[in-house]
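Duplicate of #3305? Posting structure anyway:
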C-alpha cells in the first residue's frame, strides 16, 4: 500500500483502498514490469512527499509527466538538476524573470518551490516512455481530483495556479471562496504568447498569500 510519509497518508487513506485505485495499482504493476514508465516508481508521489497537506500554500497543476529519459521525477514541470529544461519550463523561467526580475536558474529542479509549500501536481502521475497521455483515463484523474477537493476543504487559503485548458478544467473542483484561482494559457511554446507571458502569477500569488497573512514564496531556484 502507498506510504507517503506525512499527513497525506491520513487524508488519502480511504482513497487508496477504493476499487478504482486498486485497479490502477494492478495496471501500474504490469506497466512497470513490461515497459519503460516514468517517473521511477519510487518518485510517483514526490509532489505529496515534498509538500504535506497542511503545508500547501499554492498548487500548480500539470497534465502528465515528461515522457523523455531522465526528465520526470514526480513534480510537474520540474526536471532533475543536470537535465536540460524542457521548453515549457524555459518559458516559466522567462515569465518569472519578467515578473520578479529573477534570472533563469542553472537547473530546472523545482524542489525549492515544493519545500516551501508549492504542490507541483500532475493530473496523471505516470506515463509510458515516448507516449504522452498514455496513462490517461486509467484512474489517476480520480485520485488527483480528490486531492484538489481535499485541499479545497481546508480553512486556510490556497492559491491554485491553472495554466492551460486541462488545468483550467479543474477549476469547478475549487468551490471554497477563501481560495485564489489564477488562470492563464499553458507555458508551452505553442500557447505561451496567448496569455501566459505577462500573467505575472508569481507576484500575484505572493500578493494573495501576504494579503492572507501567509509567508510568500521565494521563487528563486538554488544552484544544484
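Output from current build:
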Amino acid at each position: 500500500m502507498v506510504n507517503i510519509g506525512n499527513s497525506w497518508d491520513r487524508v488519502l487513506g480511504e482513497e487508496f483502498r477504493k476499487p478504482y485505485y486498486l485497479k490502477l495499482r494492478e495496471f501500474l504493476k504490469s506497466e512497470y514490469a513490461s515497459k519503460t514508465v516514468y517517473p521511477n516508481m519510487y518518485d510517483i508521489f514526490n509532489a505529496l512527499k515534498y509538500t504535506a497537506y497542511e503545508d500547501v500554500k499554492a498548487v500548480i497543476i500539470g497534465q502528465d509527466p515528461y515522457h523523455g529519459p531522465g526528465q520526470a521525477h514526480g513534480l510537474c514541470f520540474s526536471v532533475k538538476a543536470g537535465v536540460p529544461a524542457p521548453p515549457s519550463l524555459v518559458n516559466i523561467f522567462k515569465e518569472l524573470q519578467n515578473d520578479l526580475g529573477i534570472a533563469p536558474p542553472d537547473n530546472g529542479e523545482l524542489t525549492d518551490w515544493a519545500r516551501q509549500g508549492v504542490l507541483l501536481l500532475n493530473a496523471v502521475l505516470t506515463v509510458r516512455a515516448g507516449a504522452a497521455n498514455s496513462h490517461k483515463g486509467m484512474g489517476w484523474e480520480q485520485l488527483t481530483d480528490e486531492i484538489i477537493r481535499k485541499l479545497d476543504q481546508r480553512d486556510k487559503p490556497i492559491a491554485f495556479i491553472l495554466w492551460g485548458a486541462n488545468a483550467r478544467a479543474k477549476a469547478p473542483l475549487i468551490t471554497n471562496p477563501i481560495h485564489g484561482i489564477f488562470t492563464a494559457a499553458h507555458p508551452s511554446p505553442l500557447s505561451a504568447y496567448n496569455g501566459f507571458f505577462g500573467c505575472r502569477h508569481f507576484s500575484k500569488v505572493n500578493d494573495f498569500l501576504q494579503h492572507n497573512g501567509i509567508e510568500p514564496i521565494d521563487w528563486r531556484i538554488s544552484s544544484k
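Confirmed duplicate; merging threads. The helical segments are 8-11, 19-34, 46-50, 87-100, 111-115, 140-152, 165-168, 201-211. The longest strand covers residues 58-62.
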